[in-house]
Amino acid sequence: MTAAQKLLWVFGGIVALLSVASALGWLLQRRKGDTAVIRNLNERLRAWWLMVAVLGACFWLGPSATLVVFAFISFFALREFITLTPTRASDHKPLVVAFYVLVPLQYWLIHLEWYGLFSIFIPVYAFLGLPALAVFAGDTEEFLERTTKIQWGVMIAIYCISYAPALLVLDLAGFEGQGALLLLYLMLVVQISDVMQYVFGKLFGKHKLAPLVSPSKTVEGLVGGGAAAVAIGASLWWITPFTPLQSAAMSLLIVICGVLGGLALSAVKRSLGAKDWGSMIEGHGGMMDRMDSVSFAAPIFFHIARFFFSG
Amino acid sequence: MMAGVAAASLVSLTRLLVGARAQWRSQPGGGQCLYFANHCSHLDTLAIWSALTPAQRAVTRPVAARDYWDKPGLRTYLSGRVLRAILIERRRDERAGDPLAPVFAALEQGDSLILFPEGTRTADRLPQPFRGGLFRIAESFPSLDLVPAYLDTLHRSLPKGSHVPLPLYCTVRFGAALERPAAEPRADFLRRAHASVCALADPARRTPA
């Protein structure tokens, strides 16, 4: 099978799955009525169709379009992050640079396939450059806190998320030019893990995992959902350069990183006094609510795959 | 026609750039309204105007400073044709007669208005004390709904002295129209109006009914 055929098969599978889920959601609504949980489920499903359509369009239009779409995802994620973060007027310059310079630049570097620069640009140059810019506003009040918040937003929303489409330019031995499949693999495992944890949690959830940080996460959801995601990930080994066993290990890695990302960013969100990052995606909250697991899983998956599988 | 297209694009652009999502703390009445809000950036007028429903927008005109909006080119077109703004003179030496005269004329015609009672922009989260204009208007139009509004996050998006707006999600919170007790002294009224805007600054707290 060629890479294009594999993509088509996987997308066909996703569409079939979503169709079944949507039919079930519709039936549930007819049988049990319009309760809050069912309405939220159907809202989420509709948002899923939209997200799958966007991802499908990305793959169809090619790597440049995918990079543009992810640049917008980063832009909206940063927007939500900075909206919730109390910054001051003296932070204006670094923030203008973050939104209008760093977002396009990071994705441009990935477009150039300049690994040596896109992998260090934000952690080195932006990390040092942002406080250097801020210092000229002459405001020392909470300088460390303000700088840290901007650096955090930039690291998570731009740098970490950009690692997902960076998989498009990652050359693994015997897998050249098939980065789109790796990106699809990552997104599928992360999102299936999130969905399965939600489903298992709702069905069997008893023991809360971290009640103060993320009240809806349960141990049963984590174990059941995580195992289901690893099983699905392993069964997708044929779209990756991995053997089935390696694919299971990689999926486990993605699931663990995703869970930790969800928890850590939930704690950040709560320390900023919010329940959702935004209201952009119906039923899901904001862009950051959907990308929190990706932001942790993408860079780790990229570097581990690169370390063990590049030629 | 052109003005209608320009208005629609202006609303979309404002929403794209700074969100300008409306949050109504209480359902607005259908009558003639005066929306008064804290003033922190050049985008305030556009943000409130964009947050209104299309029906409200069609009858609402902003009160704006002549020295900012009466610049030849785009600003004159926007303030004159699209926003149908009422431009008032802030500089005392340029004034002839009552600076609020055009505001009174518009209210007599039945227009709803957007007004920033501080008179100037402030860099802070909460507004400065209100000037007397709001009281004079309230006194002369007893049946006018005085609706407080708070512009959240906009002072961070385009703080005084900067020219590039940050694309944050700004919210416009509208409160319940002020009660209108008879013969309330000027200072009391202004303090109460000021407090009604400040009460909307806290996203979690509900305004007392």
Task: Please state the overall shape of chain A, judged from the principal axes of the Cα atoms.
Answer: globular
Average pLDDT confidence of chain A is 91
**Strand order of the biggest β-sheet of chain B:** 1-7-6-2-5-3-4
SSE pattern of chain A: HHHHHHHHHHH
What is the CA-based Rg of chain A, rounded?
A: 20 Å
Would you tell me the overall average pLDDT of chain B? 86
Query: Biggest protein-protein interface?
Result: A-B, 14 and 14 residues
Q: Please, what is the CATH homologous superfamily of chain B? A: Glycerol-3-phosphate (1)-acyltransferase
SSE pattern of chain B, N- to C-terminal: HEEHHEHHEHEHEHEH
Helix-residue proportion of chain B: 25-40%
Output the structural class of chain B: alpha/beta
How many helix segments of chain B? 9
Q: Label the structural class of chain A.
A: mainly alpha
Assembly level: heterodimer
Description:
- The complex is a heterodimer of chains A (311) and B (209).
- Chain A is mainly α and 311 residues long.
- Chain A is 75% helix and 0% strand.
- Chain A is built from eleven helices and no strands.
- Chain A is globular.
- The mean pLDDT of chain A is 91.
- Chain B has a seven-stranded mixed beta sheet, sandwiched between helices.
- Chain B is α/β, with parallel strands linked by helices.
- Helix content of chain B is 37%, strand content 16%.
- In chain B, helix 1 crosses helix 2.
- Chain B is globular, with a radius of gyration of 16 Å.
- Chain B has one domain: 3-Layer(aba) Sandwich (Glycerol-3-phosphate (1)-acyltransferase).
- Chain B is built from nine helices and seven strands, in the order αββααβααβαβαβαβα.
- At the A-B interface, helix 3 and helix 4 of A face loops of B.
List keywords for this structure.
heterodimer, A: 311 residues, mainly alpha, 11 helices, 75% helix, globular, B: 209 residues, alpha/beta, Glycerol-3-phosphate (1)-acyltransferase, 7-stranded mixed sheet, 9 helices, 37% helix
